[in-house]
Amino acid sequence: MKCDCCRSPVDEENACCQVCGFPLLGGDGSDMSSIIGDYRRSLLGGTVLSIEQFYYGYNGDGELEELKSEYVDIANAADLPQDEIMWFDCGYEPLELQREFELHALVRNSKYSFRANLLVKPDSVKTFSKLGVCTEDGCRVRFVVGDGTDNFYTESIPLLIKQNQ
Q1: Cα–chain-centroid distance for residue 56?
Q2: pLDDT tens, 58-82?
Q3: Rounded to 5 degrees, what are φ and ψ at 76?
Q4: 142-155 exposure pattern, b = at least 16 Cβ within 10 A, e = fewer
């Protein structure tokens, strides 16, 4: 059996999901869908996903160098759709397509934050790509780099963060 809210495996003997705390209500229909949606929005409403954006320029010697970087908010966790990729308006193009690179992600809420360096392999990104995110069982997400048909999925990271890491 899986939790109706976060889709984590649950033991039917428990009253609530061990991951997200959603009560194991049973039932079906639109009322259940509304209850699940409200609970998920309440649980994840203050959780924001961000990625590190880098700015480059040429120095006095004509060499390309990193000028600065900053985390840019890309999504509220409560707004992420289930079972599909949410594509962002930004594109993603690494400076060198022939090497592995890291996508630096930040998940934060009002109390805690979690940073992750997610490896993207060079054979998975051939050209200018879109950046997206998809949900996974257990209130987790994976970032997606691709063109919509040929995609690379990073390792998953948690949306429910309980301690600074």
Answers
A1: 25
A2: 999 999 898 899 999 999 999 998 8
A3: -90, 130
A4: bbbbbeeeebbbbe
Residues 6+ apart with CB under 8 A from 76: 44, 45, 47, 48, 49
**Strand order, beta sheet including 113-120:** 64-76, 48-58, 101-108, 113-120
Same domain? 36 vs 55: no
The residue range of the domain holding 101 is 48-158
Determine, yes or no, domain membership for 164. Answer: no
Mean pLDDT of the chain: 84
Same domain, 21 and 54: no
What global pTM score does this model have? Answer: 0.80
In a domain, 17, yes or no: yes
